[in-house]
């Protein structure tokens, strides 16, 4: 392999194999038993704790931390899973710095919250390693529920339904279950094939059949599902990507960030994955950061995130932004793309500076060029493939016919986060259960 | 820098910090290093009679309890008195004292309860030119079962008898070390005084089982599947020790009897508290067993700074709090305080609320946005909220001025009045 960060174009193997392996190793690292003990000791066991209120799934955080502190990690994991069956993944990918850890009173007291996310990971990893799956399925009810989409919302819904004794069939358009856990999160946040391990573990409840390669609208229809099941849950996510609406967007080298991340996640040997020398990522969310950081880790020489509004409006958290800049990513704010230049393939992207005025975002006359051989679009995903019977408002499913529920990124309510999807899937399952019991 | 020079029953030392009779003072190597580190004196680990040395267990001899972050709060031991030959200890005591004339060298003793045994050991100790002796009537394990240690300390008549033998057979100052494993600490202190003791030292360790192994179902420390009670010490025992020191200091029968304070002294502040309650000096063990000899440097600098800040000399501190130690019946029932929460300091953990609502007087209100406020009409000033609050000085007890109506009782705050004259007291004396 003779490529380096300086090699022009989109090429693989810009860094030696051992560097790439090291770059994609476990990002945050697991706490060992002693570290977990020290971290757990810091929890004040608050009354009606603010961290619980800040968790979309409402995990009893002080209780599980106290259970860690007293040497019972399995009991701690059971507390977590009772509210959030994907607690292991959420421990890895939740933006805890804007959720539980922001609410932690020790953040107020000394700017150093209890490390709730890492403690949650310690508990769930310890319990999963011990083979614990502390749920027993209720007697079979004879009812059948179709879950469309094997992402966090669908899996959460399926597990809760199976727990209550219903039979569940999960239909997934991709080759593997897991949704964005499997295809859409930075690799270094979920190493060791954790997403699939967690799905396998979750399915231990029994009563859940997963059918992959089956797409709603192509292979199955909502009416068909309603005919063969007692209820349907839609957890179809956001399948589309917003366009740049800048000239030249169709040039070679301009791709969706989510596709890049999905490909990266499914590539066993990352030295074979091509990446540009000069990478430009357009957007301001987690997807933009994940694409930009991983481009750097693959060996791209220059990686720039360009966001059209001010930095304070970026939906990527401050922690994620810091992570990006420490990985060598440059962040430019208040600039929007106006044209993609190049002869066949992208050569540079032209941006105009913006001003954010009460009337809306306005382009100024001042422009600049960024050299680019690869451009990732990360300006938001859109709902596609929603059944006709669903009412879509503001790009989200807001109403559904009888016997149909929805949750996760495709549905209205909450932020588009894994943890929110888990909560919505779980809550929909409880509603479906009530409905099926009559 | 304040002068910390100490004169305790005629024994002079450059500071009032001595190492207690315990593992750290068992041999020359340790004691020399302690003196190099700055310790004012040592009480050499307890010597027994001539003859074959006693033996110790060969498995674990310490057990512990910990607070957050594995901070050692309490230590328990089943070690016995020195297991080194008497003549070796005596030779080393003499050698160290010869090189450290400015430091206090006191020798702890425990021999059988007959006068000849005491005569014999005292003769040996005098030859070392040590500054004094401490009679170990305290150890609660091992030796007690052989009729020594706390077996003597729990019988005031024996204390008096042995102390008298010691005073009659030696000119050395004599400190009697008391066991806390007794119902009224004043009785052994009185007995020591009757026997002619120059001082008492307390507390020795408290009988204890620190923990139980829940896999082997054995007390810990565990020796081949079995455990036994040991002596408990360290920061956890300090409150017990402070009370016992204060009881002796304020007891008319023993008031003025010099006291060497022992029990969980870890910092200069602990030492100052013991001294304020009447201790002329302090002895330290667990803290050095946890952190090493160097802590004395903090104790010296801390006590100096405190005395300088207060513009006090060391003797001014000793016993200064004793007049304020009283019986419950003399406490002012018209001293009314109310908890007050500093909203700027509050971090909204709600521990005060949980404690008050679940276990006390339902005197703290919680708003939906987690603002915690005290309901003066329900607050009995118990102080629990202050104690459970993780932020120091966030909750304080504020005294109500005289004449102001206490919203809880509806009566104005009055002048000093105590239980002895309270109308609810069946044996109340009429107020004059």
Helix coverage percent of chain A: 25-40%
Task: Round the mean pLDDT of chain B to the nearest integer and report it.
Answer: 96
Structural class by helix and strand composition of chain A: alpha/beta
Kindly report the name of the CATH homologous superfamily of the largest domain in chain A.
FAD/NAD(P)-binding domain
* Rg measurement of chain B, Å: 25 Å
Annotation field: number of helices of chain A: 17
Kindly, what is the distance between the CA atoms of the first and last residues of chain B, rounded to a whole number of angstroms? Answer: 49 Å
Shape of chain B: globular
Trace the largest sheet of chain A across and list its strands. 4-3-2-5-19
Which CATH architecture of the largest domain in chain A is right?
A: 3-Layer(bba) Sandwich
Q: Output the CATH topology of the largest domain in chain A.
A: FAD/NAD(P)-binding domain
User: Number of DSSP strands of chain B?
Assistant: 22
How many domains of chain B, as an integer? 2
Report the largest inter-chain contact: A-B, 15 and 14 residues
Characterize the main sheet of chain B.
8 strands, parallel, barrel
Tell me, what is the CATH class of the largest domain in chain B? Alpha Beta
Unreliable residue stretches of chain B = none
CATH superfamily of the largest domain in chain B: Aldolase class I
């Amino acid at each position: 392999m003779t490529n380096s960060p300086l090699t022009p174009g989109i090429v693989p193997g810009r860094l030696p194999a051992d560097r790439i392996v090291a770059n994609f190793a476990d990002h945050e690292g697991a706490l060992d038993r002693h570290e977990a003990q020290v971290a757990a000791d810091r929890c004040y066991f608050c009354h009606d704790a603010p961290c619980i209120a800040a968790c979309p799934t409402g995990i009893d955080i002080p209780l599980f931390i106290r259970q860690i502190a007293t040497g019972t990690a399995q009991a701690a994991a059971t507390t977590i899973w009772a509210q959030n069956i994907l607690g292991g993944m959420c421990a890895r990918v939740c933006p805890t710095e804007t959720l539980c850890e922001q609410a932690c009173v020790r953040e107020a007291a000394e700017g150093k919250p209890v490390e709730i996310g890492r403690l949650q990971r310690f508990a769930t990893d310890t319990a999963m390693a011990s083979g614990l799956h502390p749920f027993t399925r209720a007697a079979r009810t004879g009812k059948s529920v179709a879950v469309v989409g094997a992402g966090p919302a669908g899996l959460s819904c399926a597990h809760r339904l199976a727990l209550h004794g219903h039979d569940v069939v999960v239909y997934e358009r991709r080759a593997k279950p897991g949704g964005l856990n499997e295809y859409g999160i930075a690799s270094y946040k979920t190493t060791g094939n954790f997403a699939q391990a967690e799905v396998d573990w979750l399915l231990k409840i029994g009563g859940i059949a997963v059918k992959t390669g089956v797409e709603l609208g192509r292979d199955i229809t909502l009416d068909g599902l309603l005919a063969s099941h007692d209820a349907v849950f839609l957890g179809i996510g956001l399948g589309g990507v917003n366009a740049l609406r800048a000239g030249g967007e169709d040039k070679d080298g301009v791709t969706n960030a989510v596709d890049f991340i999905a490909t990266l996640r499914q590539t066993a040997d990352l030295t074979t994955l091509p990446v540009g020398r000069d990478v430009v990522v357009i957007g301001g969310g987690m997807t933009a950061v994940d694409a930009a950081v991983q481009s750097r880790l693959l060996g791209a020489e220059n990686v720039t995130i360009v966001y059209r509004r001010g930095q304070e409006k970026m939906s990527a958290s401050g922690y994620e932004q810091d992570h990006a800049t420490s990985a060598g990513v440059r962040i430019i704010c208040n600039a929007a793309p106006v044209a993609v230049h190049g002869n066949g393939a992208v050569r540079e992207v032209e941006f105009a500076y913006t001003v954010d005025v009460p009337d809306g975002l306005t382009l100024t006359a001042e422009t600049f060029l960024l050299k680019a051989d690869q451009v990732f679009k990360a300006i938001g995903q859109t709902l596609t493939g929603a059944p006709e019977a669903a009412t879509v408002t503001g790009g989200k499913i807001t109403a559904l016919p009888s016997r149909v529920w929805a949750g996760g990124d495709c549905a209205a309510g909450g932020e588009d986060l894994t943890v929110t999807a888990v909560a919505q899937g779980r809550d929909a399952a409880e509603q479906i259960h009530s409905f099926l019991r009559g | 820098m304040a002068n910390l020079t100490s004169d305790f029953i005629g024994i002079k030392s450059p500071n009032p910090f001595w190492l207690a009779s315990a593992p750290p003072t068992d041999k020359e190597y340790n004691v020399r290093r302690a003196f190099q580190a700055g310790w004012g004196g040592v009480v050499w680990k307890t010597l027994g009679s001539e003859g074959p040395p006693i033996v110790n267990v060969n498995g674990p001899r310490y057990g512990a309890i910990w607070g957050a972050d594995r901070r050692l709060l309490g230590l328990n031991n089943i070690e016995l008195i020195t297991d080194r030959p008497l003549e070796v200890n005596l030779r080393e005591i003499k050698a160290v004292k010869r090189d450290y004339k400015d430091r206090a060298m006191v020798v702890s003793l425990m021999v059988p309860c007959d006068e000849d045994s005491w005569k014999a050991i005292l003769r040996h100790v005098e030859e070392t030119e040590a500054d004094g002796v401490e009679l170990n009537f305290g150890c609660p394990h091992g030796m007690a079962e052989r009729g020594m240690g706390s077996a003597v300390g729990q019988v005031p008549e024996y204390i008096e008898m042995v102390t008298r033998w010691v005073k009659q057979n030696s000119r050395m100052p004599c400190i009697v070390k008391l066991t806390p494993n007794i119902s009224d600490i004043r009785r052994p202190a009185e007995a020591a005084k009757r026997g002619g003791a120059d001082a008492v030292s307390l507390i020795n360790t408290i009988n204890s089982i620190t923990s139980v192994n829940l896999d082997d179902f054995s007390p810990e420390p565990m020796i081949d599947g079995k455990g036994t009670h040991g002596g408990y010490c360290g920061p956890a025992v300090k409150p017990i020790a402070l009370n016992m020191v204060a009881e002796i200091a304020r007891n008319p029968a023993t008031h003025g009897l010099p006291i060497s304070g022992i029990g969980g002294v870890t910092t200069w502040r602990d030492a100052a508290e013991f001294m304020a309650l009447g201790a002329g000096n302090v002895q330290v063990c667990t803290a050095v067993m946890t952190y090493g000899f160097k802590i004395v440097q903090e104790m010296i600098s801390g006590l100096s700074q405190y005395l300088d800040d207060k513009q006090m000399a060391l003797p001014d501190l000793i016993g200064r709090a004793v007049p304020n130690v009283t019986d419950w019946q003399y406490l002012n029932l018209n001293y009314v305080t109310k908890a007050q929460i500093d909203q700027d300091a509050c971090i909204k953990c709600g521990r005060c609320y949980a404690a008050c609502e679940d276990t006390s007087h339902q005197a703290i209100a919680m708003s939906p946005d987690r603002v915690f406020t005290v309901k003066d009409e329900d607050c009995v000033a118990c102080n629990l909220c202050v104690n459970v609050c993780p932020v120091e000085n966030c909750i304080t007890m504020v005294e109500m001025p005289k004449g102001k109506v206490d919203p809880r009782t509806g009566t104005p705050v009055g002048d000093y009045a105590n239980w002895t004259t309270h109308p609810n007291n069946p044996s109340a004396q009429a107020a004059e």
